[in-house]
């Protein structure tokens, strides 16, 4: 098992730390035979630093190079049932994104996934907002969703020519925060399963929905669909509403 991962500066979430979904996706690749992986984020994710993975039961703990080391993430295989969610279609998702509430007032404008300050070919530029009703197209789900289109760029493909798994994890991440619609909020835990990895030449529909709350913890689901409506990947998430001046707390 590869025991080192590294987050390039391009893949930030907060300005000086890694995007949680992308980092979790790299951690998930430590389990190539697992259908689904759960990753818990324990501390801000360092950029441009080698992180070490250490076996811990059926999972791994991922630490930085400090002395003593700081626990950054922990990950282990899990089981994840597919959600009862459907794509609203590319047209509806495109209309939803046109009123993206983060376009002018974004707490993390340079986020690799949802930051409006990132250019095409630099960030993923996934801009989810509440589903609208264009030309009679209605939400096919029984719960409110945010939606957005995502047009992957060729650099997101791995050697197989398909979108690399970590970028699919990243695309699943931030939409959950917009479905919860609270600030400030940070990803605490994410489980995901990838059913199919497409090529980068077709748009993807991204949706997310809120799933409840337990005090400062908020729960969300998210999913990626092909243009024809096939489920490609999905996640379950725990987000933590934070006091910007308080130290981080364990999940």
Written overview of the protein:
By secondary structure, the chain is an alpha+beta fold. It folds into 2 domains: 4-78, Thiol Ester Dehydrase, Chain A (Roll); 90-241, Hotdog Thioesterase (Thiol Ester Dehydrase, Chain A). 13% of the residues lie in helices and 31% in strands. It contains 3 helices and 11 strands; from the N terminus they run βαββββαββαββββ. The protein has helices at residues 20-28, 90-97, 165-180, and strands spanning 4-6, 36-41, 50-56, 59-63, 71-78, 129-130, 146-150, 185-194, 204-214, 217-226, 231-241. The protein has an 11-stranded antiparallel beta sheet with strand order 1-3-4-5-2-8-11-10-9-7-6. β10 and β11 (231-241) form a beta hairpin. α1 packs across α3. The longest helix is centred in the C-terminal third of the chain and has 16 residues, at 165-180. The two termini are 27 Å apart. Residues 245-250 have low confidence and may be disordered.
Largest sheet strand order:
1-3-4-5-2-8-11-10-9-7-6
Could you tell me the radius of gyration in angstroms? 17 Å
Distance between the termini: 27 Å
How much helix is in the residues?
Answer: 10-25%
Shape: globular
Average pLDDT works out at 93
The percentage of residues in β strands lies in: 25-35%
Q: Could you give the order of the helices and strands? A: EHEEEEHEEHEEEE
């Amino acid at each position: 098992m590869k025991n080192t991962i590294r987050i390039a500066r391009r893949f930030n979430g907060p300005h000086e730390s890694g995007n949680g979904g992308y980092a979790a996706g790299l951690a998930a690749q430590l389990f190539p035979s697992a259908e689904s992986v759960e990753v818990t984020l324990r501390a801000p994710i360092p950029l441009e630093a080698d992180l070490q993975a250490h076996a811990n039961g059926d999972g791994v703990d991922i630490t930085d190079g400090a002395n003593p080391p700081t626990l950054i993430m922990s990950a282990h295989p899990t089981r994840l049932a597919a959600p009862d969610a459907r794509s609203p279609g590319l047209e509806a998702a495109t209309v939803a994104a046109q009123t993206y509430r983060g376009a002018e007032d974004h707490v993390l404008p340079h986020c690799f996934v949802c930051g409006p300050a990132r250019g095409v070919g630099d960030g993923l530029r996934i801009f989810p907002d509440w589903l609208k009703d264009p030309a009679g197209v209605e939400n096919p789900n029984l719960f409110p969703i945010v939606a957005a289109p995502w047009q992957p760029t060729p650099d997101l493909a791995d050697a197989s020519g398909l979108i690399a798994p970590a970028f699919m994890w990243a695309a699943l991440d931030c939409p959950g925060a917009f479905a919860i619609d609270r600030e400030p909020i940070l990803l605490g835990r994410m489980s995901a399963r990838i059913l199919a990895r497409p090529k980068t030449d077709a748009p993807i529909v991204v949706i997310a929905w809120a799933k409840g709350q337990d005090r400062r913890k908020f729960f969300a689901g998210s999913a990626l669909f092909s243009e024809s409506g096939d489920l490609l990947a999905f996640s379950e998430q725990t987000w933590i509403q934070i006091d910007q001046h308080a130290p981080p707390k364990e999940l």
